[in-house]
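Researcher: Good morning. I'm working through a list of sequences from a screen, and I'd like to move beyond sequence-only analysis. For each chain I'm collecting a predicted structure so we can compare shapes side by side. This is the next one on the list. No need for commentary yet; just the structure.
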Amino acid sequence: MSLYIGLMSGTSADGMDAALVDFSASEPESPGLSVRLSVRLIDALCIEYPDAFRQQLRQSAVADHLEVSAIMQLDQAVADYSVQAVQTLLQRNDLEATDITATGSHGHTLRHKSQPGGFSWQIGDPSRIAEQTGITCIADFRRRDIAAGGQGAPLVPAFHQHCLSNRHARMVMNIGGIANLTVLPSDGQPLLGFDTGPGNALMDEWCQRELNCHCDEQGSMARQGKILSNRLDEWLAQPYFSQPPPKSTGRELFNLDALGDLSQEKSEDILATLCELSACSMAAAVKHYGYPGGELLICGGGLHNRLLLERIQHHLPKAQVRSTETAGIHPDWLEAMAFAWLAWRTDHRLSGNAPAVTGAAGERILGAIYPA
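Model: Good morning. Structure tokens for this chain:
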């Protein structure tokens, strides 16, 4: 076996996802040689963040100013949750640190700005992870792509292409805090992928700020509200939605404070409208750049919002909207698996980005290696 662990703390700041993955394949004979891997998920888990820490991460992501000491404390704390996730996986599977080749850590994004002048900043000290786990840590995957003129995001479409491509018109929608669409190649078309806009982030932020809960389970509260058409039209006029790919975004652009004064509206109506904003923007991306009558595989936390899926299906009546589990990959762990795969790529001196997706000048080996 060739074992790697992928770590991912998403925009929603719910917790640290960890996936133990076995990559079985012949070793590449030389750098740059493409190898078709067998990707097998052995185990996965999420270390949930305490409420106070979750709130701290979310506030830091949209704060105008951050204190250096506070940032460094967050950096260490994210690393400590990473270490806890890795050690728990080892214990559950009766493994030693020496059984794992490397850990691929995405970290937690504090800032992300698209090109021109782009940058992306993830916290979760990889030196601390390597030191405390005794496993080589590979991290900082986005900045090399940005240095090459790319967006640095999304990075998962290359993994989607590796695992989920077939001969049919197939797409993947990863619905985290921010949603991203992958349009897999069909009939000679190139790989395409980009951030579509909000996924769960705005709905979750409203629940936490106004309703004292983490999220709207299954969309049940939004289902009781009505869509505020004027608000929806106003929000859909955000220029990002009409901007052509390659493009990427984050909480800096999509947060409640950017949506105007909502104090006079009913909570259920705001939730219904935010849900519709996410569904409309995702469906519009499929209509413009994907296969409106093709297979749309859903992964990420948004899969658990039944109303959101219903609204996506409503706007894409001919699409086959279903979980990635129907294609053999668990929807909750796909992104963590992707960073285990990116670590494998870096470890074997293989490129990890898809220039057609990010807009980078070419393929690049991503990440920095922190030896155990």
